Amino acid sequence: MSLGQMRRGVGLVAAALALILAGTADAACIEAPVVGAARLHEFEMLMMDVSLRCTRIGVAMQPHYDSMIGVHRSLFDGAAQRLQRFFATDAVADAHHRGLYDRYATMIANRYGGGNTSLDTCHVFDAVAVEVARAGDGGRMLGAVAQAMIAHPLLEAATCPAKP
Length: 164
Description:
There is one protein chain. By secondary structure, the protein is mainly α. The chain has one domain. The protein is built from 8 helices and no strands. The chain has helices at about 5-20, 30-55, 60-70, 75-85, 90-115, 120-135, 140-150, 155-160. The protein is globular, with a radius of gyration of 16 Å.
């Protein structure tokens, strides 16, 4: 896939997400805690997709990914719950919010599902998973790594005006 095709694909995903979010977010932007949750969720999806691709080419990253998820389960679950609440805007939406959240999560998974996979890339991501899992710092390293790797999550890009 060429860079142009990837950019068009990301643009289409962002446009679709903007349509899904119509009416669920303030026109100006979303709150910082929701952006943080989106960043963490997107990081989790990125790492899951990379782990699956790397396992497929023979790099046993899955145990390290699973360890990272296990160590930080409460943070990842909290991010998912915050996003589910974000998509559930009223009592009627409460019955249907999982559909919006699921579509959003699918878009994120698709965003990273087709990335480039090489042995070198897999070893780098595997090392990230190992270090984040062993940090033992209450999630500070996880937050820093997620911030560095996902500066502007798709949810933020789709709902916030471009910064000059």
